[in-house]
Amino acid sequence: MLTFIRVQAVLILGSLADFAVTILLVSCFHDSYVIANVVGNITGSIAQFILSRNWAFEATDDKVLPQVIKFSLVWAGHILLSAAGIYLFTHYLGWYYLLSKTVTSVLLGVTYTYLLKKHYVFA
After folding, report:
1. What's the average model confidence in pLDDT over 100-106?
2. In which element (H, E) is residue 48 found?
3. Residue 117 burial (CB < 10 Å; 0-12/13-18/19+)?
4. What is the pLDDT of residues 40-59, one digit of tens each?
């Protein structure tokens, strides 16, 4: 249970970086919310990898390159699912893009991301 709580804390911190970049790109640079979401996800994922490896899973005894590769594969799926979720909620349900991003992030964080990090990336 402690690992789950730590991972959720890491996801929140990574999400803060993700949301900051997304909001900046949409509000200041008038980028598409889908493209801004992808760039934000990449930014947040870098922060999350570092925190997950060093703190949440304490997986520093393992070699970093295999973890980076596995993490990248998981995050490629995450980015696709996140972009699809945000697009569906925003485009078809008419939700504000930040609400769509929040709901999608929470759903992916407690399911897809947590399970694959625990059982695949840092196992």
Report:
1. 93
2. helix 33-51
3. buried
4. 989 999 999 999 999 999 99
